[in-house]
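Input structure tokens:
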């Protein structure tokens, strides 16, 4: 399917060892500082190696509490089972399983590459399937909260409301450090602010780095946000309503 099965050269092995060493340094610092770390997802042909690295970091640093979190792109049809298997492995080996659940970012690229290289696409057949697996993943992790920690990273109101409901049903406190909600800074602030106002743990994700790398990322996020029917107009309406409310209060 790709270079995953190719025998690496000595130079590639040395480079990979340096990558693992750098990731370990970051995870150790996060562990010593008691600060959770979320390692982002990549394209499917990179993700398998990344999964192995992140899980090895979890086995070292997630013994007492969940510090290291992987990221699961639920637009891939294999991720729900991957999470189930990962939680079971963590239970057997005695560490906490950390996960940030997202819908995903590389759909067009994944499909194009699969077609060009003639292998089955790893992508869900439609958005409904992605939504179903996303919601199933957060339900699973809530049910297994004694063995894991999670971040529900979405601009989708329905999924955010579902997690609130699941927390209530499972008697999980709003400020439980094992469950975070997250949205990109400047997007879906109505979700973030309302959740935070009611006492839930909320993170606003701030992209940082060179313009040439940050801008394509932000454009992908904006494109995803507008893919939700009426999302842009609705957000503008919410901003206008909030602006009027503050003027009246003043």
């Amino acid at each position: 399917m790709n270079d995953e099965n190719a025998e690496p050269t000595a130079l590639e092995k040395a480079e990979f060892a340096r990558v693992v060493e750098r990731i370990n340094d970051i995870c150790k610092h996060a562990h010593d500082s008691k600060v959770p770390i979320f390692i982002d997802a990549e394209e499917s042909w990179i993700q398998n190696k990344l999964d192995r690295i992140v899980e090895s970091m979890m086995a070292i640093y997630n013994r007492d509490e969940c510090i290291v979190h992987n990221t699961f792109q639920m637009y891939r049809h294999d991720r729900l089972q991957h999470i189930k298997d990962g939680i079971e492995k963590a239970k057997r080996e005695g560490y906490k399983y950390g996960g940030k659940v997202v819908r995903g970012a590389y759909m067009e690229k994944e499909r194009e590459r699969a077609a060009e290289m003639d292998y089955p696409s790893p992508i869900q057949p439609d958005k409904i399937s992605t939504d179903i697996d996303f919601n199933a993943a957060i339900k699973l992790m809530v049910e297994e909260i004694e063995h894991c920690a999670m971040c529900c990273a979405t601009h989708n109101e329905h999924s955010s409301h579902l997690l609130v409901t699941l927390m209530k049903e499972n008697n999980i406190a709003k400020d439980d450090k094992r469950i975070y909600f997250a949205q990109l800074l400047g997007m879906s602030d109505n979700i973030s602010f309302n959740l935070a106002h009611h006492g839930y743990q909320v993170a606003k994700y701030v992209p940082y780095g060179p313009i040439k790398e940050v801008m394509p990322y932000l454009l992908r996020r904006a494109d995803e946000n507008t893919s939700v029917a009426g999302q842009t107009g609705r957000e503008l309406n919410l901003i206008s309503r909030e602006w009027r409310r503050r003027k009246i209060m003043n």
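The chain is about 55% helix and 10% strand. Residues 4 and 10 are 16 Å apart (CA to CA).
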